[in-house]
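Quick question, first post here. What does this chain look like in 3D?
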Amino acid sequence: MMSTVAAYAAPAPKAPLERTTIERRAVGAHDVLIDIKFAGICHSDIHQVNEGWGQGIFPMVPGHEIAGVVVEVGSEVTRHAVGDRVGVGCMVDSCRECENCLRGFEQYCTGGNTMTYNGVDRHGDVTYGGYSKQIVVDENFVVRIPEGLPLDVAAPLLCAGITVYSPLRHWGVAPGKKVAVVGLGGLGHMGVKIAAALGAEVTVLSQSLRKKDDGLKLGAQDYRATSDPATFTELAGTFDVILSTVSAPLDFGAYLGLLKTDGAIVNVGAPEEPISLNLFGLLGGRKTLAGSMIGGIAETQEMLDFCAEHGLGSEIELIGADEINTAYERVQASDVRYRFVIDTATI
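> Answer (accepted):
Ran it through. Tokens below.
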């Protein structure tokens, strides 16, 4: 039977989040019921509450960085058991039949995947996210959190971690490669950690040097201010990969000049505004301007295992549910180091 659980929701676009209750579906044969312990606050939560990426579905319960414990499993579940430490990321279903799904790229499902919140599932029901006490998810979209990762610092890995891990792996980041990470925020700080753990030489490109000490502690070898024109002169032709994690439009022409021949700028931030680009910046040096969106379920598990092996968790500020609206304001002001995580016991 369906269950009623406490949650925090935005009742309307741009409205403050407030405590409420939502209905979760009954546990089906292939479902797991998860007691959510921690939920990360992603900048995309704010974009969607504010309808910056298009029309939303309200009331909206955000949250796609979910860490918790399985408390019930369906009759045919084989992947998880009661007591398992698990996570749920940005999607909770896909068509499972298209070419991309069959290749393990559920995030690029051509039939359209089901997002963890602000979506509609295959039964026509609106999906609600992790700012809640419990969630019911198909076992195939639930990943295992290794014992070496505390649940609170693991939660942001379900979006921030996989969002940077997938392109770094796809574009072959390894020892001998030079990588620049644009922005040192919730995504960027994990980009630095993971790129360094992959063996790359890492530089942070940020508007100012305010977070330089942090960047170097996280694994970067260099830290440059993009507000200084000398940065683009001195680093011209330096990088194999530039990972842009910011949600503001950049002067991509200037950044293309920092790439080596055959280098790539990979954009994982999603600015609300369109950009303009002189294509001659791509032609000289056979350069690539690309994008990447989270990762498939198998790759997300690979990322969690990699992070556990290398002792990588997100740098977090743990908050109570009554601090969510203040946290949203602070994220927009870039005043967090580096990810807010909600203790869902406070919901």
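The two ends are 23 Å apart (CA to CA).
The chain has a mean pLDDT of 96.
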